[in-house]
Amino acid sequence: MSHASDAALYAQWVELLGWLEAEAAARGLGFEKVADFPDYIYRMERPYELPTTVMSVALNASGQPLMVAAVSPRHADLKNVSLRLMGGSKHWHLHAGESGLLEGKRPFTRARLVTLLDGALRGLQAV
To answer: What SUPFAM superfamilies does the record tag this protein with (predicted)?
Structure first.
């Protein structure tokens, strides 16, 4: 399967970060950075050319992580974005496509993210 460039992946990651932050705010969830890229942390005085320093974030419900999203660092060979629901086995691996992130061959849209978050929150309410 052919994937888009690394630059496309990181640009699409920034778009996903925006979606995650907006959807967290709309649902009263916490949104927090978990980690920066290692090469950003250790770059010393060198310029940093990626569109963000953020490598992973967590959405929190009542102070507990609900979903963690992360992107591969630049040194990884097969780069992707991962989404993981905490407390369960559900996870997604997304890859860069020509016009956005892909879940397999299917475009990963903001509507798909909304569906995942709504399902996770319904699961929390059922507990």
So the answer is: Frataxin/Nqo15-like
- What are φ and ψ of residue 80, in 5° steps? -160, 170
C-alpha span between 100 and 4 (Å, rounded) = 9
In a domain, 75, yes or no: yes
Query: Between the CA atoms of 50, 51, 57 and 62, what dihedral angle is there, to the nearest 10 degrees?
Result: 160
- Number of domains the chain contains: 1
What CATH number should be reported for the domain holding residue 74? Answer: 3.30.920.80
Average pLDDT on 27-37 reads 94
Give dist(CA 102, CA 123) in Å, integer: 25
What pLDDT digit, counting tens, does each position of 81-108 carry?
Answer: 999 999 878 899 999 999 999 999 999 9
Domain that holds residue 25: 6-126
Is the residue at 105 inside a domain? yes
